[in-house]
Design brief:
single chain, alpha/beta, Rossmann fold, N-(1-d-carboxylethyl)-l-norvaline Dehydrogenase, domain 2, 11-stranded mixed sheet, two-stranded antiparallel ribbon, 15 helices, about 45% helix, about 15% strand, globular, NAD binding, oxidoreductase, HIBADH-like_NADP-bd, NADP
């Protein structure tokens, strides 16, 4: 690895990275010109902020526009100052559909990762790649500088963080806890308070994206909390994702994620209605998917899910039970501010029906089955 320690001159201005050192593989450095390298490194400087509820929102592109193997990560470069070095040890709690590929990307990028999961066997593939294993969240947090947690629901997030032998018991000043689970704002604030009481830092960072984006390192992080921890873990977020947003106070990241998933759940319910209606009136639903993909309402979700939905196949990328949980939490958020959400409320009922049909662990696109049942009645 080779460190970029010299100032960069772009548009007659000199820039120096103050928050982190940027490293690239030497073999890749030899393939790009100094001008291209400067342009690539400039992608790590923040864009101008926009505004949200009186607070700035910062959007950071997490990936270089170049196609080479570039990662903003190094914890072993001897010529970087100690404050520029990344945390040496990274913990990851929750090795499921999302946590497993996220942790795998950290390991493959050279991070020293320690993992934990209630079912230890799920950690075995990561251990074979070089990850360490600890038997409790407490032990992981105690042995790591920064600990990430990806849990399935608010109850699990609280238990893993604050329960017996939870991560809080292993936290102390100088450590950081990053919760990338999808929970409600109150849960996130509670976990944050418990973590910060130990002297450690807390960042909520729920992700937008499902299994495939997690595997490809293309997640979107919606973060809020301690800004200094955000800056410290930004290179890790860049390894696991394509972009990251810092949204200010704890609770804003959770709220943004719930709004996004509420929209997604409503879209899938409406799409399901369209597929069934097209078939009912004698149209080819496959052609409907193609028509939609070329119009103003095109969305990757429709093109990815549509073909398998037509065949009544629902390979799990995002479990239906988690989508319904997010709909429920989003409706609760809307209720707390007296915002009417009748479309999301109606969609939530369809997900509840699908759960009652035994489809909880299927992909959330299986919500279409709840409509088939209604048509057959």
């Amino acid at each position: 690895m080779r460190a970029l320690t010299k100032p960069l001159t772009l548009n007659n201005q000199t820039w120096v990275s103050s928050s982190m050192s940027i490293f690239v593989k030497t073999s890749y450095c030899q393939q790009v010109s100094s001008t291209a390298m400067a342009a690539m490194c400039s992608s790590f400087f923040p864009q101008l902020p926009t505004r949200f509820n009186g607070r700035p929102i910062y959007s950071f592109p997490a990936k270089s526009h170049f196609s080479g193997s570039f990662k903003a990560f190094s914890s072993q470069a001897s010529n970087a100052s100690s404050q520029d070095k990344l945390p040496a040890n990274v913990g990851f709690l929750g090795i499921g559909i999302m946590g497993s590929p996220m942790a795998r990307n950290l390991i493959k990028s050279g991070c020293d990762v320690t993992v934990w999961n209630r079912t230890k066997s799920k950690c075995d593939p990561l251990i074979s790649l070089g990850a360490k294993y600890k038997s409790s969240p407490e032990e992981v947090a105690a042995s790591c500088d920064v600990t990430f947690a990806m849990l399935s629901d608010p109850e699990s997030a609280v238990d893993v963080a604050c329960g017996k032998h939870g991560a809080v018991s292993g936290m102390s000043s100088g450590k950081g806890y990053v919760d990338v689970s999808t929970v409600d704002g109150e849960t996130s604030k509670y976990i944050g308070q418990q973590i910060k009481a130990t002297g450690a830092l807390f960042l909520e960072a729920p992700v937008s994206g499902s299994k495939k984006p997690a595997e490809d390192g293309q997640l979107i992080f919606l973060t809020a909390g301690d800004k200094s921890l955000y800056e410290t873990v930004a290179p890790f977020l860049d390894i696991m994702g394509k972009s990251r947003f810092y949204l200010g106070d704890i609770g804003n990241g959770a709220a943004m994620k719930l709004v996004v998933n509420m929209i997604m759940g409503s879209m899938m319910a409406s799409f399901s209605e369209g597929l069934l209606l097209s078939e009912k009136v004698g149209l080819d639903p496959s052609v409907l998917v193609e028509v939609i993909s070329q119009g103003a309402i095109s969305a990757p979700m429709y093109s990815m899910k549509g073909p398998s939905m037509i065949q009544s196949l629902y390979p799990t990328a995002f479990p239906l039970k988690h989508q319904q949980k997010d709909m429920r939490l989003a409706l609760g958020l809307a209720e707390s501010v007296s915002q009417s959400t009748p479309i999301a409320a109606a969609a939530n009922e369809l997900y509840k029906v699908a759960k009652s049909q035994g489809l909880s662990d299927q992909d959330f696109s299986a919500v279409i089955e709840s409509l088939k049942g209604k048509l057959q009645q």
